[in-house]
Design a protein that fits this description.
Elements: H1 3-17, H2 26-33, H3 51-62, H4 68-80, E1 83-85, H5 94-99, E2 100-107, E3 112-113, E4 117-124, E5 129-135, E6 137-145, E7 148-152, E8 159-161, E9 166-169, E10 175-179, E11 184-192, E12 198-203, E13 209-216, E14 222-229, H6 232-237
Parallel strand pairs: 2-3
Antiparallel strand pairs: 1-2, 2-4, 4-11, 5-10, 5-12, 6-9, 6-11, 7-8, 7-10, 12-13, 13-14
Helix pairs in contact: 1-2, 1-4
The chain binds fe (ii) ion.
Residues 133, 135, 139, 169, 175 line the site of fe (ii) ion (FE2).
């Protein structure tokens, strides 16, 4: 039994439960989080600490504005987690690649194994823009430290998510994330199509869009594999028509 994972999961569920009146979709995440079996402990080889963790993790942990029990559990998870850079290789600007790191609670490389949910801590360096992207998985961001700006769709106005606030991104909705002066620490969860690729949208010619496919490898790192035009069917699936 991994007690750090169990404690974090329990306190996250109770904190999300208290916010269900503001976001009914949280019920789905609570139900999936409760399926995490904290006896499925994984022992994976350690990784060198990513520079973003060295530079920014402590200041985000000191500035957490969630409930005190979840904050304590997040500190324990942050020190037990195997932090890794999410995106690697060609097709991403190095500052952005280095600035997006995760410490997984449950999933392929989590403290505990799960094949149906990916959840953990997501640390974003200051002054980053994670561009418009979409994925089949339903996504939860629960901000615990720093201010995060989210945009849903290609033309909608961005909005701010503050510590103690949750945001649920529907399956295939295109969205972007922006950080500001402070680094940002977020509790994330993916449910549903957790194996789906992550498509980044880039402006093409004549106001069209192309999309670049990132696919998750066995070590949980995302690698760019191909690109294609965004079709009418994809625009409809993304709610862009
Ligand atoms: Fe996303």
């Amino acid at each position: 039994m991994n007690t750090v994972a169990q404690s974090f999961t329990d306190h996250l569920c109770s904190e999300l439960d208290s916010q269900q009146d503001k976001e009914p979709m949280l019920a789905r995440f609570i139900a999936e989080l409760k399926t995490i079996d904290c006896t499925q402990v994984q022992s994976l080889p350690p990784l060198p600490e990513p520079p973003t963790v060295t530079a920014h993790l402590e200041s985000t942990l000191s500035a957490m504005a969630c409930g005190p029990e979840l904050a304590n559990a997040a500190r324990s998870l942050a020190s037990a987690a195997r932090w890794n850079q999410l995106f690697e290789g060609e097709g991403i600007e190095p500052t952005l690649a280095q600035g997006l790191v995760a410490g997984q609670l449950a999933g392929q490389v989590g403290l505990v194994r799960s094949d149906t949910i990916r959840a953990g801590l997501f640390l974003l360096a200051p002054h980053l823009h994670y561009p418009l992207h979409q994925h089949g998985a339903l996504e939860l961001y629960y901000v615990v430290s720093g201010q995060l700006t989210l945009q849903y769709g290609t033309t909608t106005k961005p909005f701010q998510v503050s510590p103690g606030e949750a945001s649920v991104t529907p399956s295939n909705k295109v969205h972007s994330l922006t950080t500001h002066e402070a680094p940002c620490l977020v509790v994330y969860a993916w449910v549903g199509e957790v194996e789906s690729p992550n498509w980044w949208w880039v402006p093409g010619a004549n106001g069209d869009w192309d999309r670049v496919c990132w696919e998750r490898q066995a070590d949980a790192k995302w690698i760019q594999t191909r690109s294609e035009p965004v079709t009418q069917a994809t625009l409809e699936e993304a709610g862009e028509t």
